[in-house]
Specification:
Length: 725
């Protein structure tokens, strides 16, 4: 009986099985059937040959226009030159010593041609391509036409395994296939009108119309969605079984005193989200929540109120920041907001007071020892720090809550390393203005609860964003003129560059800057180059200084303080100013080579201006051509200030990352068919079904086929990754 675990060698023979294994890593029947067509040609539908790219390996359907054979100079062989067309664009085919093909490739014949696109004398061509005639024929090894239906599947192929060889192999397998044990329960398939697994494979590999393709792919997409949702449902069940310490505020504690001293009223959103978080950390089950809010929406106040609840309950709360600049600013901000409530141990301090302690990598040895001591003994209720908090030497007395600011700057492994420091699993709150693709994915899948702040506090001004093309010099002049105008009225500005420059390695750059560097073929703007140009040119006479991650921590701190105090007019910086920097007097930001940054990063950068009562300006300078993806991306950022909308755009462009692995976004994907934005409704339906299945049968003992599918998809590394959230 042939099933999904049957070796291809036993069905297709040693030679073909070896080619499939070496060229495409297909070893068993299940591998081959899961190797789905990339697209489908309708018989007679010609491929648009204008889209062919030199160097690509392609399969095209084209019509023969003419063929001529000529002898090769200095050789007894011959060369056959065939011109094929899509009706508008020609493509040359060159066959060496294959004169017999002239009989098959007569003018008017339509066929499939597979090979690598190259160029000869300015014309694109295929040299010695593989050929598959589409007229009904009798194959040498099987009876009947290879493509009996109107749709011709085109598979991802290898050099020695063209698409039609895969089609022939699939047909042999399907003709031999017995009944398959279906991993999806029958009642689930009935509720959602899904084909059986065997039917789905036939529909995608041998369809008669595109409706059958859609039906088959929908069923196989359900397999992916359900497997992932079952894995997440089992993880949620295990997390809910974990016991942690419930943290509840005291009626007359820190939170009550803090709320009474607030100089402004909380927004309705802040009150609602705060109540939700308080309810969750008041349960003996670890909270796992994302707090999403526009830049300036008051996320820090919400987080601080949650931290105070934990301190009220005798625990400690950590605020993890991605940079030392931001960590130091958070520490100052918390102390300022708390006032006397942050002066524990000082003469005349409020009896309810706690201590706010900072831990960073650049601290002196004595200051570090003192900080670690008060953390270990528990007198520091609020701890603010960078990656330095992840070191083993940091010991907490009773870690109850971790707040991660700008979570896209921390990997899952790093967040998990800190969570492991608690004697019992701590609650987790991650904050962002624009979620990264994997975070959007996890919220869609239901593995990360989300709270949103949509209101801006009173007095905050909108930010107007414009794309400035480098090719239009007059626009660039107006851009620098805007900075001079704002400075003339007493305001300040940022100029952001993708790179630091100089001889050292950049430590502030974003991955997209590196990728764009290779694509653009031109150097990115650097702080070390731009600063003197502005000082001597466009911004001459203004107080212009620089800030980047290669400067000593003390110098960075001093520069940022002087900028905040208005002693610097323009700060030329890298992305060290991306998050948390709060200078309400700064009203203009110019981002040079803005196409080198991702959507989320641009939105974060933009949030540094417009933080006061004066309107903000964000000017995205780019050398990218219009009608390119980079220009479209910048236009999308300019068109909206909605971080959630931009996050979905980022997801559409960069993909969701590997939901079952550590990749934050990009090429690594554990999903082949499932697309989050397109299949969001299906994913939510699969979550309901998965929860029902796991609640009734946690170990899937009554669903062995589903359990095997889950085990195959969820290896040890993926399972461990899920455990870390």
């Amino acid at each position: 009986m042939v099933d999904l675990d049957t070796s291809l060698k036993s069905l297709l023979g040693q030679r073909t099985a070896t080619l499939l294994a070496e060229g495409l890593e297909l070893h068993v029947v299940g591998d081959l059937l899961a190797h789905l067509p990339r697209r489908y040609h309708e018989r007679g539908e010609l491929t648009d040959l204008a889209d062919l790219v030199v160097g690509d390996t392609v399969t095209v359907q084209a019509r023969v226009e003419k063929a001529e054979r000529r002898p090769m100079r200095g050789s007894r062989g011959s060369m056959l030159r065939v011109t094929v067309t899509d009706g508008t664009h020609p493509l040359a085919l060159t066959f060496f010593n294959q004169s017999w093909r002239e009989r098959d490739l007569r003018p008017g014949t339509t066929a499939l041609f597979a090979g690598k696109v190259d160029e000869y004398r300015g014309r694109r061509q295929l040299t010695n391509p593989e050929v598959q005639l589409l007229e009904p024929e009798v194959d040498s090894d099987v009876t009947g036409p290879l493509f009996a239906n109107a749709l011709v599947p085109i598979y991802p192929a290898a050099a020695k395994v063209p698409s039609w060889t895969l089609a022939r192999c699939v047909r042999l397998v399907l003709d031999s296939l017995g009944s398959l044990e279906d991993p999806l329960p029958e009642d689930l398939r009935r509720r959602h009108r899904l084909a059986t697994l065997a039917e789905a494979y036939r529909l995608v590999h041998q369809p008669t119309d595109r409706g059958q393709v859609a039906s088959g792919r929908r069923r196989l997409t359900w397999d992916e969605a359900l497997v992932l949702q079952v894995a997440l449902a089992r993880r949620r069940r295990e997390v809910e079984a974990l016991a942690t310490t419930a943290r509840n505020a005291r009626p007359d504690g820190l939170l009550t005193a803090f709320d009474a001293a607030l100089p402004f009223p909380l927004t309705a959103g802040q009150r609602e989200v705060g109540a939700t978080i308080a309810g969750e950390i008041g349960r003996p089950v670890p909270m796992h929540r994302l707090l999403q809010g526009e830049v300036g929406s008051g996320k820090t106040v919400v987080a601080l109120r949650a931290m105070l609840i934990v301190v009220d309950a005798g625990g400690q709360a950590v605020l993890l920041a991605p940079t030392e600049t931001l960590a130091a600013q958070h520490c100052r901000s918390l102390r300022e907001m708390l006032g006397d409530l942050a002066r524990d141990g000082e003469l005349g301090a409020d009896e309810r007071a706690t201590r706010v302690t900072l831990v960073t990598g650049s601290m002196g040895a004595r200051a570090r020892r003192e900080a670690l001591a008060v953390i270990a003994e528990g007198s520091a209720g609020l701890i603010v720090g960078t990656h330095a908090l992840l070191h083993d030497e940091v010991v907490f007395a009773d870690l109850g809550l971790i707040v991660v600011d700008e979570q896209h700057r921390f990997g899952v492994e790093q967040r998990d390393a800190l969570r492991a420091r608690g004697r019992r699993p701590p609650h987790l709150l991650v904050m962002t203005a624009t979620p990264i693709p994997r975070t959007v994915a996890m919220t869609v899948f239901g593995d990360l609860e989300i709270s949103e702040l949509t209101e801006l506090p009173r007095g905050r001004s909108p930010v107007a964003t414009f794309v400035v093309p480098a090719a239009m010099r007059s626009w660039a002049d107006r851009m620098w003129g805007r900075i001079r105008d704002e400075v003339a009225t007493g305001r300040q500005a940022y100029v952001v560059c993708p790179r630091i420059g100089g001889d050292g390695a950049d430590d502030d750059t974003d991955a997209m800057a590196d990728e764009a560097q290779g694509r653009a073929g031109r150097p990115a703007a650097t702080v070390t180059d731009v600063l003197p140009q502005l000082v001597d040119g466009e911004l001459a006479g203004l107080r212009v200084e620089c800030l980047h991650g290669r400067l000593p921590a003390a110098q960075r701190e001093a520069t940022m303080n002087r900028f905040a105090q208005g002693q610097i007019d323009v700060l030329v910086a890298t992305t060290v100013v991306e998050v948390g920097v709060n200078v309400p007097n700064a009203t203009v930001m110019v981002v040079l080579d803005a196409d080198r940054f991702g959507v989320s990063q641009l939105h974060q950068l933009r949030g540094r201006v417009g933080r006061g009562t004066a309107p903000g300006w964000c000017l995205l300078h780019t050398a990218s051509d219009q009608a390119t993806p980079a220009w479209d991306r910048l236009g999308a950022v300019a068109a909206t200030n909605d971080g959630a909308e931009l996050a979905r755009l980022d997801l559409a462009q960069r993909h969701e990352g590997d939901v079952l692995g550590a990749a934050q976004s990009g090429g690594r994907r554990s999903l082949k068919l499932l697309a989050l934005l397109r299949d969001e409704k299906l994913i939510r339906e699969a979550r309901v079904e998965a929860t029902r299945l796991v609640d009734a049968d946690p170990e899937l003992e009554r669903h062995p086929a589903l359990r095997r599918l889950l085990d195959a998809a969820l290896d040890d590394a993926s399972a461990a990754f899920l455990e870390k959230g």
